[in-house]
Structure formats: C-alpha cells, structure tokens
Amino acid sequence: MINWIVKKFEDLSGQELYAILRLRSEVFVVEQNCVFQDMDNKDQSSWHLMAWENDQLIAYTRLIPPGVAYAHASIGRVVTSQTARGTGIGKQLMEKSIEEAAALFGSIPIKIGAQLYLREFYSSFGFEQSSDIYLEDGIDHIEMIRH
Hints:
Elements: E1 3-8, H1 14-31, E2 47-53, E3 56-64, E4 73-80, H2 89-105, E5 110-115, H3 119-123, E6 128-129, E7 134-136, E8 139-146
Parallel strand pairs: 4-5
Antiparallel strand pairs: 1-2, 2-3, 3-4, 5-8, 6-8, 7-8
C-alpha cells in the first residue's frame, strides 16, 4: 500500500527531509554519476510530494509555485527509488504531481526541465517540448510545458 503525502517545506519532519535528500542523492548524484548542487534554495518555497511504502520513500517530486523556478508552476526533482522501478510508480507519481499542482496553484500551465531521454514519458502526460536541447550538469535537457 502506497501512502501519498504532500507537505510544505516547514512541515516536513527531520526524518522526511533526510529521506528526500537521501533519495535525490542516491539517484541524481550516485546513480547518474553527476556532481551538482542539489540543494538550490527552491525547496523552502516548494511543496514536497512523497510516496511511502513500508516506511521507505519510494518516489518523490517537488511542486514549485509560479515565480520560483519559472514564471509558471513547476514539477521538479522527479525521482523514483531503484527498488520501485518497473512497478508503474513513476506514472503514478507524475499523475499525482499534476493533480496536486492543480490543487495548490490552480489550473495553470506547468513547466519542467526534463532530461532529454524522458521526453516521451513526459509527453504522455501532455507536456510539449518548449526549448532546444541544453546541457545541464553534463546531461542533455529540454524544457517542456503542459497547458
């Protein structure tokens, strides 16, 4: 059974924050072999969507209000635990993220910075490419928007 929780930064417990930062580090830094500054001062303005299963954080996104990362609302730091991949959790995570973003910010466009290899995945949720390919932290990215 997956327990979905969304919280503002100041409402996160120390355990939740640690689990979020650990999962982001495991995937974005270690697994993707990418040295970058994950903590970018956007967490404090964001809402944090967590998927817990058996006391383990298995998926997470950061829901960013308009005007923080982009003029539009944004979904960022989309991550699933290696142990949960192949279960459909990534699809559930994006569906829940879009739903929560609409509840928090209204029915407004959502902009994301996506790793290029995930373009088709995000397209399946209505996101459309809105930029040329750019290099971020050594990985090809594109901006995408969902109206």
